[in-house]
Amino acid sequence: MCDTFVALSAQTARGATLFAKNSDRERNEAQALEIHPRRRRSDSGRMRLTYLSIPEVEETHAVLISRPFWMWGAEMGANEHGVVIGNEALHARTGAQRRRALTGMDLLRLALERAATAAEAVEVIIRLLEQYGQGGDCGHLNRFYYNNGFIIADTGQAYVLETAGRWWAVQQVRATRSLSNAYSITTDHDRISPALMAHARAEGWLDGDGRLDVARALLDETRDAASFGRGRCARGQALLDQGAPRLDPAAMMAILRDHGDAADWSPANTTGRTICMHAAEGARRSQSVGSMVSEIRQGRTVHWLTGTSAPCLSVFKPVILGLPLPAQGPPPTDAYDTESLWWRHERLHRAMLADHAAGHALIAAERDALEADFRVRIDRAGDDDLATAIAACWRDAEAAEARWASAHVPPTRSCNRPGYGRSWARLNQVAGVPRT
């Protein structure tokens, strides 16, 4: 389960395109931040993806990606031309293909590597989707099959692309847009695949004007009730609308940290899945394992990433393509590793889950002040000083997390849902997380 957001320049405080995404995956499914430089065609002329090998192109673009540790593809990322993409699992009444093909994450990374604009990225995904299809297990410890939707943006344009099998529909974003785990394009699509239209016509799905309501035709209502996709999409859109036309990176970070309006909300007491996702027992296996906010503008595009789970308990840190990515320790896997940034934070996160309200109160003010300071530092840094400023921000964030870990107080209240505690204990044991 995930949520992705975009706001075009007229809706933002500094005339930039703003992009944001939470990647929600299984709780031990660590995500790696990586920068890959431009790459020329290899001697073999083929590249191995998650499940398939396909022909390479002559040269790829440099990319920044946030990648589930076991996949080739990425949940979110950007390239050197300022194209950003986030993907969403979509559940159609027609079902998802189980036979291995391209995954949505493969399509996202391929588009970043091969497209210099958002419009080109749309075409890359459509072309590869129609040629190879999408399918295969996208779960970590639990099997998970789904179709994919995408928000794709650059400095001037943004698009929503929703797919089902090899079918697709495209809607250009006019101002702001949210996307969650539910089909959202209705009759307002700008383009639609001929194959989908032909099927819709044969099935009698078209309205009296010959238009297809994509969401109504495809949405699996049962799966949506479980994922709360439409509810999260509506909540995210409302938050975007409240902030426009003065949206800025801090506002997008706040949206990614949203837990809704329930006064008694806690990770163990969630009536509907929230934008900042926390895992629990039963079917609620996902948590926000990585988060990204991008401010895309001419001159200097800055990407803000947590590199850790739970944005409400994490610090967004700056990354600029073309400059070194600060060290995060060894690439994380699904095994606990004290040398890994992702897992060091995860131990803090899981300790704070015993009393989320107390943990959040402990860190929130310093977290927000750090991020505000980081944004000022990056704005003021000259080109020659940027790499130094970025590295300093990452060091300061790590130092803050170390303080929080040592200062964390014991919980003042206990969870009255034994299944919730058991689910975390089991997954902690699987990963080898020490008891706190």
TrEMBL record:
The keyword Hydrolase applies. InterPro entries: Peptidase_C45_hydrolase, Peptidase_C69. GO terms for molecular function: hydrolase activity. Residues 68-128 form the Peptidase C45 hydrolase domain. Gene3D superfamilies: Penicillin V Acylase, Chain A. Pfam families: AAT (PF03417). Keywords: Hydrolase. This is Carcinine hydrolase/isopenicillin-N N-acyltransferase family protein.
